[in-house]
Design brief:
Blueprint lengths: L1 E5 L13 E5 L13 E10 L4 H4 L18 E11 L9 E7 L3 E5 L5 E2 L16 H13 L7 E4 L7 H11 L2 E6 L2 H9 L5 E4 L6 H8 L4 E6 L4 H7 L2 E9 L18 H5 L3 E4 L9 H13 L7 E5 L4 H7 L8 E5 L4
Parallel strand pairs: 8-9, 8-11, 9-10, 11-12, 12-13, 14-15
Antiparallel strand pairs: 1-2, 3-4, 3-6, 3-15, 4-5, 5-7
Helix pairs in contact: 2-3
The structure holds NADPH dihydro-nicotinamide-adenine-dinucleotide phosphate (NDP).
NADPH dihydro-nicotinamide-adenine-dinucleotide phosphate (NDP) binds next to helix 2.
């Protein structure tokens, strides 16, 4: 069983590939005798998510638990049930949920796994579009942003796993949507593949306030916040009265020893802005409703999704770290096995 192990808790700065290592142990390919309510999974696709970086540190405050040094990382994945002693799962089921960064995972007392019912879409979608990031976009946009037709919407990290969907949902509702991303290739995707009205490369814009004024001369109704720091500060200067900010994540701050301050908070008062943080797992009860909306949209070609695929567990550490340099174009996933 090939595994990606965390060597030691990471301290300070951006984790490195060398904080992880690929090792191999031998295992039985069945649930061991006497273990009740367990499943043995063959992991097919694994997800790289920004929050995993938090789990590489010894944190007491994070909303995700820390990994154990010497053990495989864990994260969202799509897997096939090879063996089960749990009444709700049987051999041959396909599921998505939190699994190990390894070829096979023995999960005791599984909870928070979703059985995959619709097999007529790519299985990889269940770690992106139809998985946790998709639910994040859905819950964050529809439940937190109170969107309505005609709203001016701004999405940062817009070409990523979550952002690309937020933009498409907003367009389908009839909003004016602008996204930012960190390369020309990503800006082209936003405009030409995901249908954003406009997009810009934030790395080429020394004055974020000025660029936002250019794209939103009348101000921003909804900001879908993925980035934090200077971007949030510039957005605050450009919000409209009664604007909403869905605080989904602040990736620019995750690897700083001292997170940046936010200077323009007074604009929350002046513009009567509502800022609301949210965590996707609080919204998983809406998953059936989300599927009901989005599966037909996929089939009708109204929603599209870009994935960035790394082949094999050996490629996993670099793919995970790459989220923080913007190496990924679209949803970053790892193929462990195709069947
Ligand atoms: P992405 O697929 O968007 O990958 C991360 C991207 O962030 C990179 O490709 C890069 O794109 C951008 N980025 C990295 N560092 C910086 C930086 N310093 N400044 C600006 N942009 C940066 O990730 P996800 O879509 O999975 O996640 C997006 C956000 O949503 C994250 O903040 C994440 O933590 C959050 N999240 C929150 C959840 C919740 O429950 N609240 C659930 C899931 C995700 P670029 O080239 O454009 O810089």
């Amino acid at each position: 069983n090939k595994q990606v192990i965390l060597k030691n808790y990471v301290t300070g700065g951006l984790p490195k590939e060398s904080d992880m290592e690929v090792t191999e142990i031998s295992i039985q390919l069945k649930v061991p005798e006497g273990i009740k309510d367990a499943i043995l999974l063959k992991n097919l696709y694994l997800s790289c998510d920004p929050s995993m970086i938090d789990s590489m540190r010894k944190f007491e405050t994070s909303y995700v638990p820390s990994f154990e040094p010497g053990s495989p990382l864990s994260g969202y994945g799509v897997a096939k049930v090879l063996d089960s002693t749990h009444p709700d799962y049987k051999k041959g089921d396909f599921i998505w949920g939190i699994t190990g960064w390894e070829e096979y995972s023995l999960i005791k007392a599984p909870n928070q796994f979703f059985k995959i019912q619709h097999m007529d879409v790519p299985l990889t979608y269940y770690i992106g579009l139809l998985g946790m990031p998709g639910m994040t976009a859905y819950a964050g946009f529809y439940e937190v942003c109170s969107p309505k037709k005609g709203d001016y919407v701004y999405v940062s990290a817009a070409s990523g796993a979550v952002g690309q969907l937020v933009g498409q949902f907003a367009k389908l509702l009839g909003c004016y949507v602008v996204g930012s991303a960190g390369s020309e290739e990503k800006v082209e995707l936003l405009k030409n593949k995901f249908g954003f009205d406009a997009a810009f490369n934030y790395k080429e814009e020394p004055d974020l306030n000025a660029v936002l004024k250019r794209y939103f001369p009348e101000g921003i109704d909804i900001y879908f916040e993925n980035v934090g720091g200077k971007m949030l500060d510039a957005v605050l200067l450009n919000m409209r009265i009664h604007g909403r900010i869905a605080a989904c994540g602040m990736i620019s701050q995750y690897n700083l020893d001292h997170p940046e301050g936010v200077h323009n908070l007074m604009h929350v008062v002046l513009k009567r802005v509502r800022i609301e943080g949210f965590v996707v797992t609080d919204f998983y009860h809406l998953y059936p409703q989300f599927l009901e909306m989005v599966i037909p949209q996929i089939k009708e070609g109204k929603i599209t999704y870009v994935e960035d695929t790394a082949e094999g567990l050996e490629a996993a550490p670099a793919a995970l770290i790459g989220l923080f340099t913007g190496r990924n174009v679209g949803k970053q996933l790892i193929v462990v096995s195709h069947d």
